[in-house]
Design goal:
A hairpin with an 8-residue loop joins strand 1 (19-23) and strand 2. The protein has 744 residues and is α/β, with parallel strands linked by helices. The chain contains 20 helices and 31 strands. The structure holds adenosine-5'-diphosphate and zinc ion (ZN). Zinc ion (ZN) binds next to loops. Residues 197-218 are annotated as: Disordered. It catalyses: Couples ATP hydrolysis with the unwinding of duplex DNA by translocating in the 3'-5' direction; ATP + H2O = ADP + phosphate + H(+). GO terms for molecular function: hydrolase activity.
């Protein structure tokens, strides 16, 4: 009979090698044991090492915990080398383990987010160079009793103590072959070191003059300075209407952190569009901060990673993944727009960066400041319970009033047939433009039309891979799925009945509003701001410039205009469809709609010009509209809380979603049903479902969802582990857990 085992390897002779555990950036169960070859110093916990794994060479980190002594010597592979970068700190390792345990992701999958290590390994990679070892310095000075060849002598002569140079540089100047240098490395006269980085990371100057803070700002700033000064963990909510000067206040806390000689991290929800924020940082501190986001190229990435690890990058602004950077001494984390759902990562390791920021701050003995004009119910609840300190700036800077918000009842003032902008909104835009001010039309929907149907047979164009309609993008003459990216050319005739010129756009997208605006306001210079037209930082900076320099009269935008922009000349915001976010059964829909529309409204009017906001709605009496009109968001949130508390919905209870998905619908249903049958119960625990997930078909996979709801004092992870282990899952089915889902 054929054995599937590999041929038996003879046990190595000689002393037993030291062993270490190495965590690899892969979704594996845990850390693996490796041997340390003779002559290599045993790398301590946190060291970055290269190891063989499944026929490849991989980088990992020496992890905590004792290696398995029963693993036979013969099966133990050796570490290949240690990377010459600062080891990963205890606090980051503990944070990674914590995130893995909380989100139920494999620790290696979490580690992967922390691995942009420059390749500086023995033997040298990209950024590695050489310097004299202490022995080399002694030999250079004539000590140590070395007998040196002429080649080695000339290498010593040209290498100054402390200087780090690339190998090719050394051999060329000394006129020797690479073998000579290699021999000196073996002899430990020369040792590897990282070449100096070519990109410098300038230090922001905390004493660079900032604006003089108003008394109420100063009071909040003093509290934050205090938080930072104590050099211990604490969370503060900094609330206050848009334009009240929160940013200036938290930049003051960043300055205090710099004075403390610790590093600061600022998380922004849309870092790629934050050109204006960067400008303000530059004004406040005299230089740019380090940046971290998904569009950074490989070299910039590794350089930034290293600058953070070496403590040279003092302030880093980034997207959520910046939480996993190797700050050796993090003193402050700011989460701006903390209520934003963009902080939730929905793929791979499913985590909420706002919540994890609090945890990272705790492990780092750092302060954490959550900033928002419309804080999430979670954060408000933590503030109310005394777990977070609450600060608030109630007034706008410069005496500017909040914009006046009015609802236009579309039942009373309907737009013309086939149009989407009602007569009073048309008039308001005309008035604004006539005064030489800027206006904005807001619609949170990309493309031309959200639905295309055939007038002859009623056929609707839908995505072949998702439960979603295809969205027309007229400029490209294509239909697009906004969930999976599927696109196809807009067909000339109905694919179902063949009728010519029968496909009709139903409902508006931002492109269609722009088309209508072109008819209504032909003189106005218009700018569409959507992710299709503003894909990255350069386009964002250019858009900001055009608006600031008044090259634009009318902005037509999706939700990307809601965040962080400062448009001083903008005095009117028209919300084309204020009801849009309220459709569907999501319990959080109202909270999110209020947050988004309040944020959009906040773009209108600053110091010199009061602003005006018109909300077009079919349901003007809805509590969301009423809250926006009155501006009394506190009461609205209190009512939201009161509605969620009795049912034990978050934040008053815990929630985890279990998503079952498969290309095979019956297989998905079977696993979902089995999960339903073996659902945990007991005191304070309830399982809802299975039911079709909100997108029941996504990227060709059928999705079912079960919700585990538990009292706050129940630890849901052990329950979930136990539950999932009791159900057999065939390989065609994937089961994902989303702890604290953002929609429910
Ligand atoms: P928020 O972050 O609350 O929306 P900002 O910090 O962006 O508010 O402040 C709104 C505007 O007021 C910005 O243009 C900012 O530069 C200005 N501002 C805020 N505080 C001051 C201050 N103390 N002195 C001068 N300008 C200020
Ligand atoms: Zn799709």
């Amino acid at each position: 009979k054929k054995s599937r085992k590999k041929p038996h390897q003879p046990a190595l002779l000689g002393p037993v090698r030291p062993r270490v555990k190495v965590l690899l950036p892969l979704p594996l169960d845990g850390a693996y044991d490796y041997g340390v070859p003779e002559g290599m110093a045993v790398p301590g916990p946190g060291s970055f090492v290269e190891v063989p794994f499944a026929g490849r060479e991989l980088r990992g980190v020496v992890w905590d915990g004792a290696p398995d002594p029963t693993l036979s010597e013969g099966r133990l592979k050796n570490i290949l080398g240690t990377l010459i970068v600062p080891p990963m700190t205890d606090s980051l390792r503990r944070f990674i383990d914590w995130v893995a345990a909380y989100t139920m992701a494999p620790p290696g999958a979490v580690l992967r987010m922390a691995m942009s290590v420059p390749s500086a390994l023995e033997p040298p990679g990209q950024q590695a160079g050489w310097r004299l070892s202490p022995a080399g310095e002694a030999a250079r000075a004539g000590g140590g009793g070395y007998r040196l060849t002429e080649g080695r002598r000339s290498v010593l002569d040209i290498m100054l103590p402390g200087e780090i140079r690339a190998g090719a540089d050394i051999t060329e100047e000394a006129g020797v072959s690479a073998a000579v240098l290699r021999g000196m490395v073996d002899q430990r006269l020369v040792e590897p070191a990282l070449l100096p980085r070519r990109t410098a990371f300038p230090s922001p100057d905390p004493e660079h003059p900032g604006p003089e803070l108003r008394p109420e700002q100063e009071e909040a700033a003093a509290s934050l300075r205090n938080l930072v000064g104590e050099r211990r963990f604490g969370v503060t909510l900094l609330a206050g209407v848009t334009g009240s000067g929160k940013t200036e206040v938290y930049l003051d806390a960043v300055a205090e952190c710099l004075r403390q000689k610790r590093q600061a991290l600022v998380l922004l929800p849309e870092i790629a569009l934050s050109a204006q924020w960067l400008e303000r940082f530059q004004e406040r501190f005299g230089c740019e901060p380090a940046l971290w986001h998904s569009e950074l190229g490989g070299r910039r990435r590794r350089n930034t990673w290293r600058a953070v690890a070496e403590g040279e990058a003092k302030v880093l602004v980034g997207a959520r993944s910046a939480l996993f950077l190797p700050f050796p001494d993090l003193g402050l984390i700011i989460v701006d727009e903390e209520h934003e759902t963009a902080f939730k990562q929905e793929e791979g390791v499913i985590y909420h960066a706002r919540d994890m920021a609090v945890v990272r701050a705790r492990f780092s003995q750092a302060g954490c400041v959550l900033v928002s004009a419309t804080p999430s119910l979670e954060t408000l609840n933590n503030a109310e319970g005394g777990r977070y300190t609450a600060l608030s700036l109630p007034r706008r800077h410069g005496g500017a009033g909040l914009p006046e918000i009015t609802v236009l009842d579309l039942k009373r003032v309907p737009p013309e047939r086939g149009r989407f902008i009602s007569p009073p909104l048309v008039e308001a835009v005309n008035e604004t433009l006539a005064r030489g001010e800027q206006a904005m039309l807001f619609l949170n929907r990309r493309g031309y039309a959200p639905l295309t149907l055939c007038r002859t047979c009623g056929h609707r164009m839908r995505c072949p891979n998702c439960t979603a309609w295809l969205v027309e993008h007229r400029a490209q003459r294509r239909l697009q799925c906004h969930h999976c990216g599927h696109t196809e050319p807009t067909p000339p005739s109905c694919p179902e009945c063949g009728a010519e010129n029968s496909l009709t756009a139903i409902g508006p997208g931002v492109e269609r509003v722009q088309e209508e605006a072109a008819l209504l306001f032909p003189e106005a210079r218009r700018l569409v701001m959507a992710s299709d037209t503003i894909p990255g930082p350069a386009a964002a900076a250019e858009a900001a410039r055009q608006v600031a320099e008044r090259e634009v009269d009318l902005i037509i935008g999706t939700q990307i205009v809601a965040k962080g922009w400062h448009f001083p000349g903008l005095t009117l915001v028209g919300v084309v469809d204020a009801d849009l976010g309220l459709a569907g059964g999501d319990l959080r829909a109202a909270e999110r709609t209020v947050q988004l529309l309040h944020q959009v409204a906040g773009r209108a009017g600053r110091a010199e010009h009061p602003g005006r906001v018109l909300l077009q709605s079919w349901i003007p009496d809805h509590p969301v509209m009423q809250a926006l009109i009155s501006g009394d968001l506190d009461t609205f949130m209190a009512e939201e809380a009161a509605a969620r508390r009795p049912g034990g919905w978050p934040p008053f209870g815990r929630l985890a979603a279990v998503i079952v998905s498969s290309e095979d619908e019956r297989a998905a249903d079977r696993v979902a049903r089995d999960l339903g049958l073996s659902a945990p119960g007991g005191e304070g625990v309830q399982v809802l479902g299975p039911a079709p997930a909100p997108l029941s078909l996504l990227r060709g996979r059928h999705r079912r969802r079960l919700l585990l709801k538990a009292r706050r004092d129940v630890a849901v992870q052990p329950l979930l582990w136990d539950w999932l282990s009791r159900v057999e899952v065939p390989s065609a089915v994937r089961v994902q857990v989303d702890v604290d889902p953002v929609s429910f």
